[in-house]
Design goal:
The structure is a homodimer.
Chain A: H1 6-24, H2 37-44, H3 48-60, E1 64-67, E2 71-74, E3 95-96, H4 100-110, E4 116-117, H5 130-143, H6 158-170, E5 181-183, H7 186-197, E6 203-208, H8 212-220, E7 224-231, E8 235-236, H9 238-247, E9 252-255, H10 269-281, E10 286-289, E11 314-319, E12 331-334, H11 339-350, H12 355-366, H13 369-395, E13 401-402, E14 410-414, H14 421-430, E15 433-434, E16 436-437, E17 450-454, H15 460-473
Amino acid sequence: MTMTDPIQCYLYEQLAQDLTQSIQEGVYAIGQRLPSLRNISETYAVSLATVIQSYSLLEQAGYIEARPKSGYYVLPWKKFQPNEPPLTQPVIKPTNVSVAQLAMSLIHEARQQHLVKLGAAVPEADILPLASLSRTLAGVSRRHWRSLANYENENGNENLRKQIARLMAESGYRCKSEEVIITNGCLESLNLALRSVAKPSDTIAIESPTYFGILQVIETLGMRALEIPTHPNYGIDPDILQKTVKKQKISACVLIPSFSNPLGACMPDKNKQRVVSLLEQAAIPLIEDDIYGGLSYETPRPKSAKSYDKSGNVIYCSSFSKTVSPGLRIGWILPGRFTEQVRYKKFLGNISTSVHPQIALAEFLERGLYRKNTRRAARIYHRRMEQLKHWISEYFPADTLITQPRGGFLLWLELPKNTNALTLYRNAIDKRIAITPGILFSAQGQYQHHIRLSCGAVEGELARKSLKILGALV
Amino acid sequence: MTMTDPIQCYLYEQLAQDLTQSIQEGVYAIGQRLPSLRNISETYAVSLATVIQSYSLLEQAGYIEARPKSGYYVLPWKKFQPNEPPLTQPVIKPTNVSVAQLAMSLIHEARQQHLVKLGAAVPEADILPLASLSRTLAGVSRRHWRSLANYENENGNENLRKQIARLMAESGYRCKSEEVIITNGCLESLNLALRSVAKPSDTIAIESPTYFGILQVIETLGMRALEIPTHPNYGIDPDILQKTVKKQKISACVLIPSFSNPLGACMPDKNKQRVVSLLEQAAIPLIEDDIYGGLSYETPRPKSAKSYDKSGNVIYCSSFSKTVSPGLRIGWILPGRFTEQVRYKKFLGNISTSVHPQIALAEFLERGLYRKNTRRAARIYHRRMEQLKHWISEYFPADTLITQPRGGFLLWLELPKNTNALTLYRNAIDKRIAITPGILFSAQGQYQHHIRLSCGAVEGELARKSLKILGALV
């Protein structure tokens, strides 16, 4: 049995989660001895080796300890405090964006090899299905060499579009492959969407905080950002959005409804439905970034906003960068009623997307490898996220507020008010730890004592030690 | 010996060219018997098989015929008339572009499998080095699987940038790899260049006629095109350009100085130098599209405009789509003094270009395969171009004017004034032949009795027959 055997991996992670929950709920009280390995093995009908691995995870997470010749005991673990940050309070007026220089210098700095990447929204190589993807790519290169002689259709490879249409059904949206256009990643999808629905100097409503890439794209297109107050766990506030669209002229709204970057927030279904409906009535296109939607800790995954779209007013954007490979550069877009505009702009942007990565991904999806690996990755992130929150509650000041993501690998922290996150960032870099300061996620310079953390690339003892150092710096 | 053996291929093509020249120059007069196969074999020190293949080419081209038991005789070939079209006469005022719909419908129509593609600017699969490229790609996929875990640097793969810097030296421009940014093809390079130097409603000076892709990009960016009179063989007129930049506010100038699309024109060195200098003095950035520059019939290839750039005012754009593979989607840009703007816009457009195609191309260039294959391709296009011109002089009305390209595979025809090229296009489609009507190459609706032809995808008997049909339609 190895760590990479997906079924076994599922078993011991699942068991560890169950046991953690039992401890958190007091089924096994602090100081109490846990059932014997054999007992658990029989109760859960799993092998002894699986139980040992599960207990080892609990030990790593600081929930239990082994006492020689006696068994495993529940430690006085610091009860996790779900200290949820409040609704954000941006100024609701259009703002010119200028996070460019800071963002680029931080991005380049954080790329350095020697850093512990606790802030980057990039998954670890070992979680991605790179080995099987490369084999597929190599096979495609050998078999499909003649396809290199032509530009791929600007809509993208037909088989890949079919596979993506099937994938869309998992988010509750049933469609034909004709609705899908392949892009060079989600950021290209967002560019195409924004350029198809808005002009320079137009106002774009966004979550606050939101992914700095969205802010930067709005900036390079000469548009203005309007930040809407956002709940750290439930996403944009529909009431405030409704009032705002009545008062202000807004050309589009860009949201990450499922497991947002940086909050990890997920809008409840009824909020998604309401936002889709109110924007449709106001004739304001909704651009949905669903790049993390597939990494839900629960199955089925939450519905996409697109699944509530009846008029083609929702432009859906996503990519395989967080689930299969960032370097492959394949994303997609369902432009709804803006399909002609998006298709034309895609064609004139770079004609089409590279042909072999598309054929290979289509095969990869067809063989069920995408689903299998994404579920496995979500389980790993779930476990890591629980550890991450535990260590934060252990090492950070008591008044630290943290979000409660139910998918993805990103977490948002509101640190004590006197903390300067940019200073913290620089001090952490000196200790070889990279985090992402909150100021990047607002066009208004909000979130100066906030940081984004990620469990995508770091785990275990390295994560624990780094968080301990970070906590001390705060 | 097979057609694909490059050395043998070179030999018989070279020999056929030498013999054609001898016939055109009257060394072998009309009606005269050519030297025996054995005689030529000894004179040129090549195999008999090579001589037979060369003679076969001359037969196909209509220069000679075989008479049973007697030998090969020079036919009464129609002397090629270099009827050069005059300087173009566009109206020199900024124009909103709207070729979109026509262009897209023609592009889709011309893609149909069953058509003889006499208009498309796409090279034939057999001329491209697809087999060796695919082998390289397959090897890269196997060996570099971990590189899929990260976004490639937004500048592009370092090895590929080094190889491109070496390639740039062949166009007379010596640079370091730091000047190069990798893109998803030349059209993306042009987009980045235009967006970095101009804003919506700004005026862009262009050659007239010019590649419709350039017109469409100008259109999607909301800019306006200013068409400058252009010599069909020597490119844009420097005198008129100089006068124009003094009178009008121009934000940038986009040129294809070497083997332009659609004319096949090549600006003489002194014109390139003068245009670079006059635009530099007027502080108007020159965007150079050099996608056909490497396909020169003569060596060394003509210098790029960039080679005369002393201040970084020239933004150089190119790609491997015409020489290695269109489906691979790899191009590059040297943004000169606009490097920061271009790099930022590339990053925010799609973060970076797909990683494996870049690594594979770098290996491909490093092993000298690019140079070898591009030279071979240029020889093939040269021979085909001569045949194409010969058949046009044979089958088209006597007052047809044609350009004299010295590189690439595109040719421009001015048909008799009463010809409607769009009607001709539709009639040709009925006969399963696709050509490109001239009206696409102007923002003003110029060139209504002009067409672009290509010898990139069709040759031999099929080309001859199709041109005969086309000539009859005219």
